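Project outcomes to date are best conveyed with an example. Our students and postdoctoral researchers have been running inverse folding experiments weekly, and each run begins with a structure described purely in tokens. The record below, which covers 436 residues, was selected by the lab manager from last quarter's runs and is presented without edits.
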């Protein structure tokens, strides 16, 4: 596979396969509710004329599938090298997704939900699949196609969640992490993540309990891990006043406070008095949001996410803009499989200004669709030199997770943390923002 046998025509796309899957997800809590027992993802395979298969992954909810299907139909005949063309093709064939608005998405965690952003999330999976195929055809790793790595190992942080021991529905998948609902539980979780994966920095998903309880959890972490970088992320659940109070309480303890309050205006007001950097994966998630946020000084760190931004090359563009404005760079994560983790690691390896450990949900996942799970060493993943992403699809696992999606009556095919929470608390409604 090292040479491009047959030249450019060999790189023409002959077939695209879309496989929606449902992946087991633990009962992780956030300000919207709780994760469903299974979360939807979409696995994208791009097969070239010479039989090389590239894989990508993105969100699997219905609105993403509706955009992915016409793009998959339009791709055959085009080259896997035509990455810029993917964007214009998607614009012309995908159509308008349902349920878009300028306001935050229904899950409330990913910022605005514009048609452009949903389409870019779909394009990202295709871009990664094309890069994987191209890398395999050329015998080059994806990081080389992005200009080459600037580091051999990419650091990830331990992603701490308040959580229940099990989902409140019978037959849901189980794990052995137990509940974590207070400072002791969070510290115990961090100790296990440190022992099992070697993480040395930690992010607590907040916005779950009243702020004083979360402040206590962060202080307990600081006592247990003195000097280690710590972050708190309530997904915009606090008013500016509350956020200012929390920032005051945690001054000198946090490396940054992530989306303490909703919206650029509030973040800008808070940034002036927070006494620590503010980070976001909610108020800057598209290029259109950058000018206002950066000129107002609303954020000091942006969490990139190649799914939001339209792929690995657009992530590098975001990094360049951040560098120009002196804004720091970290990396965001939703529940994802090993394909996306490989893509995250390749692009992270090429970003000179990645200043913080990356987020990843991966340690929480017990299932995958690749043959060899990624293994963290000292909290880091090594950036390999195998062609493409360096992962291989486990077809048996993929089929099993796809069957789960086929068997679902539709309840789990769209991630809805609020609905999942209602199973435990029938009175639960999407919390008004600010919640505190
Ligand atoms: O703000 C963030 O970092 C996230 O939204 C990451 C994830 O979506 C997380 O909050 C989750 O899945 O509950
Ligand atoms: Mg966040």
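After processing, the design step wrote out the following sequence:
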């Amino acid at each position: 596979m090292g040479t491009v046998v047959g030249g450019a025509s060999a790189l023409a796309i002959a077939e695209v396969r879309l496989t929606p899957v449902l992946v087991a997800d633990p009962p992780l809590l956030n300000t919207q509710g709780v994760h469903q027992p299974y979360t939807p993802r979409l696995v994208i395979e791009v097969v070239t004329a010479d039989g090389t298969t590239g894989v990508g992954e993105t969100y699997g909810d219905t609105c993403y599938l509706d955009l992915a299907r016409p793009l998959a139909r339009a791709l055959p005949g085009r080259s896997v090298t035509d990455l810029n063309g993917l964007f214009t093709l998607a614009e012309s064939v995908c159509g308008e997704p349902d349920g878009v608005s300028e306001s935050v998405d229904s899950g409330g965690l990913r910022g605005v939900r514009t048609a452009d952003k949903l389409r870019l999330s779909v394009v990202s999976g295709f871009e990664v699949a094309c890069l994987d195929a191209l890398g395999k055809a050329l015998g080059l790793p994806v990081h080389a196609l992005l200009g080459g790595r600037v580091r051999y190992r990419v650091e990830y942080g331990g992603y701490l969640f308040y959580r229940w021991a099990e989902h409140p529905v019978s037959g849901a998948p189980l794990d052995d992490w137990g509940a974590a609902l207070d400072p002791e539980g969070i510290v115990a979780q961090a100790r296990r993540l440190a022992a099992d994966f070697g993480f040395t920095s930690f992010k607590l998903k907040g916005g779950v309990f009243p702020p004083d309880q979360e402040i206590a959890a962060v202080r307990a972490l600081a006592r247990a891990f003195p000097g280690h970088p710590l972050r708190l992320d309530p997904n915009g659940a606090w008013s500016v006043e509350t956020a200012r109070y929390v920032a005051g309480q945690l001054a000198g303890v946090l490396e940054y406070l992530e989306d303490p309050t909703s919206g650029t205006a509030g973040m800008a007001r808070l940034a002036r008095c927070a006494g620590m950097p503010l980070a976001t994966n909610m108020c800057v998630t598209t290029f259109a949001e950058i000018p206002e946020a950066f000129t107002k000084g609303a954020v000091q760190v942006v969490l990139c996410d190649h799914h939001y931004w339209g792929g690995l090359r657009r992530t590098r563009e975001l990094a360049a803009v951040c560098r120009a404005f002196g804004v720091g760079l970290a990396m965001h994560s939703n529940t994802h499989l090993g394909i996306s983790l490989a893509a995250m690691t390749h692009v992270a390896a090429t970003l000179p200004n990645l200043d913080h450990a990356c987020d990843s949900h991966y340690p929480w996942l017990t299932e995958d669709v690749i043959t060899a799970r990624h293994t963290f060493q000292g909290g880091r993943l090594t950036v390999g030199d195998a062609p493409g992403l360096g992962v291989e699809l486990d077809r048996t696992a993929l089929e099993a997770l796809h069957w789960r999606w086929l068997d679902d009556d539709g309840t789990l095919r769209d991630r809805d943390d609020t609905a999942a929470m209602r199973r435990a608390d029938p009175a639960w409604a999407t919390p008004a923002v600010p919640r505190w």
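The chain has two domains: 7-143+395-407, 149-382. The pocket of magnesium ion (ligand 2) is lined by residues 233, 235, 258-259, 281, 332 (CB under 6 Å). The training component of this project remains on track.
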